[in-house]
Amino acid sequence: MVSEAGEPGQVHPVIHHRAGVCGKPIAHSLSPVLHGTAYQALGLTDWSYDRAEVDEDSFLPHVASLDESWRGLSLTMPLKEVAFQACAEVSDLARVVGAINTLVRSAADGSWAGDNTDVHGIVAALSEASVGRGGRAVVVGGGATARSALAALAEIGVTEAVLLVRREIRHKTEAVAQQLGISVQAAPLTALADAVDVVIGTVPPAAYPADFQLAPGEGGVVLDCVYGGGPSPLLAAAVLAGYAAVPGTEMLLHQAAAQVRLMTGHEPPVAEMRAALQAALPGQ
Q1: What contacts 40, CB < 8 A, 6 or more positions away?
Q2: What number is the average pLDDT over the span 116-126?
Q3: Same domain for 212 and 174
Q4: Do 85 and 53 fall within a single domain?
Q5: Who contacts 210 (Cβ-Cβ below 8 Å, separation ≥6)?
C-alpha cells in the first residue's frame, strides 16, 4: 500500500494486475461493475478493471501496447473473431464456435490464450430459467454470438434450430452447427409464426423490424444476449406472447463469473456480483 494523489492521507493499493473490456461501443458495458465487485469481494486489492473502445482495426495494436501488468481482457462486439490473431493458444470450445470473448495472459511467457465464456453464460442463464433438455429452438442472428448460442443449445440437448437472419446463414455458422450436431435452417427476421421452447437473441435492438412478434408461447423462454442498446424488441415481444423473458444481463453475469475464474484463479463471488449488477441497472 502506498499513498498516491487524491484525498490527503488517503492510501491506495499498488495495482499489479490489470484487466478490462474492449469493444465498440463500450460505454454501456457493465463488465467493470461485475469484475470490480469480484475483486473487492475476493480481497484482490492489487487488481483493477477498465474499459476501452476498440474496433477491429485497432484491436491488435491495442493488445500489443499492453504491458506485463495486464492479465486478462473481456471482448465484446466486434472483436470476437479478430481476437484469434492475438492468441498463441485457443481453447477447444472457442475454436469450435469460432468466437473468443476472453483473453488470458500467460504468466510464463506473456502470450495470450483465447477462450469463450459466452457459452457458459448462456447455459447458466437458461438453466436458471428452468429450460429443459431438447425441445425446439430459435436463434436470432448468425454471427459469433449466435455460434456460441448454438453451442449452448447443443449442451442442453437441442438437435434442431431455426436461425432468423436477414439473408442466408453464414457458411461458418452452418459449419459450426454441423460440427455440434445441430441441424439448422434459415428463416427471415420477421414475426415468428410458431411457438418454440427457447429463443436466443444475438443481434442489437436496431436489427429487429418494427413489426417483430412472437407466436404465443406460454412455457417457453426467451433470452436476449444483447443489452445496453436500448429497449429489447425481442423481450418486449416475449412478454406479449407469454414467454419467460430473460435479459442479457443474466448471461453477462455468468460469463463474467467464468472470466474472473480464468483471469484470477479464484472462485467468483456470484452472489455479490449479481447484487452489484442489479444495483447498477437503470431504474434501480
Answers
A1: 272
A2: 97
A3: yes
A4: yes
A5: none
- Supply the pTM of this predicted model: 0.91
Coil, helix or strand for 225? coil
DSSP letters spanning 125-147: HHHHTT--SS--EEEE--SHHHH
**Co-location of 167 and 92 in the same domain:** no
Please write the tens of the pLDDT for every residue from 69-90.
999 999 998 999 999 999 999 9
User: Which is nearest to 166 in space by CA: 199, 140, 188, 193?
Assistant: 188
Spatial separation of the C-alpha atoms in residues 268 and 18, rounded to whole Å: 17
Are both 51 and 160 inside the same structural domain? no
Shared-domain flag, residues 107 and 211: no
At which residue does the C-alpha cell 473487492 appear?
40
Residue 172 designated active-site: no
Phi and psi based region of residue 267 (left: phi greater than 0; alpha: psi -120 to 50; beta: remaining): beta
Report the alpha-carbon distance of residue 119 to residue 36 in Å, rounded.
22
CATH number of the domain to which 145 belongs: 3.40.50.720
The range of the structural domain enclosing residue 146 comes to 119-246
**238 and 163 inside one domain:** yes
Which CATH number does the domain housing residue 31 bear? 3.40.50.10860
Pick the catalytic residue from 35, 80, 147, 254. 80
If one counts the domains in the chain, the total is 2
Give pLDDT, residue 3.
Answer: 32
Residue 255's contacts (CB-CB under 8 Å, 6 or more residues apart) are 101, 117, 118, 120, 121, 122
In tens, the pLDDT along 138-175 reads: 999 999 999 999 999 999 999 999 999 988 999 999 99
